[in-house]
Amino acid sequence: MTATASIEGVEGWLTDAQAARLRERAAAVRAGGRIVEIGSFRGRSTIVLASAAAEGVEVVAIDPHIGSDRGPQEIAAQPALGESDHERFLANLAAAGVADRVRHVRKPSADALGDVDDPIDLLWIDGAHRYGPALDDVVRWGARVPDGGVLAIHDAFSSVGVTLALLRAVTLSARWRYVGRTGSLAEYVRAPRSAASVARQLAALPWFAKNLLIKVATVLKLRRGPWPY
Question: Taking a C-beta distance cutoff of 8 angstroms, is the pair 121, 150 a contact?
Fold first, then answer.
């Protein structure tokens, strides 16, 4: 089953090209390894990760499903909507045949650190996009990725909060090397920083500025179209 086919009809903002990249990284995790997802929504990326993971790889999905931080401009908690998301999440995983491959931790990521063992071979972050929570996820969860492990994060160089968190904690870090991006999905490996990797990230800043202009125009209803991902 391809990444595109497995998530057909499942709501979310992960593009097909991003799903393909995420699937490749998940498939590279060896048996006995661990994949952690922060921010599952209705299971679009969860299905990609679980369907690609080898036997013996633990897949952990962390999402409190309280109806907050669901998408653009949806920040406040909405319990009824969160419960609906949770039900759809479980149903989508079951329909894709991966429900038994995923351990769901229904907590905010900041409260779930004790529910997951080290190390984390692939960390996929698509949780709250505000600066504080995004920085907390990158720093605290990212610290648990070993040498050679992968950090993938959505809405990089698209969301203000996520981008600022990356610039502060990852871009100039001596321990993260930028691999590249597919749209707003940025990939890093736990390895010594290189000048070239820093330059490639900074080169994305004009694209970031363009995305901000698109978002402003969308909010002001001067533009119709999809939110940039």
Answer: yes
Please state the pTM of the whole predicted model: 0.93
H or E stretch covering 45? helix 44-52
What pLDDT, in 10s, does the model give residues 132-187?
Answer: 999 999 999 999 999 999 999 999 999 999 999 999 999 989 999 999 999 999 99
Domain that holds residue 158: 3-219
Cα gap 100→21, rounded to integer Å: 23
| DSSP annotation of 81 | H
Count of structural domains, the chain: 1
Nearest by Cα to 105 from 141, 76, 149, 130: 141
pLDDT of 93 over the 90 cut = yes
**Span 195-206, pLDDT tens digits:** 999 999 999 889
> 162 in helix, strand or coil?
helix
Does residue 133 form part of some domain?
Answer: yes
**DSSP 8-state class, residue 14:** -
Q: Which residues pair with 58 in a beta bridge?
A: 34
Phi, psi of 61 (to 5 degrees): -110, 125
* Secondary structure letter of residue 141 according to DSSP: I
Phi, psi of 110 (to 5 degrees): -65, -25
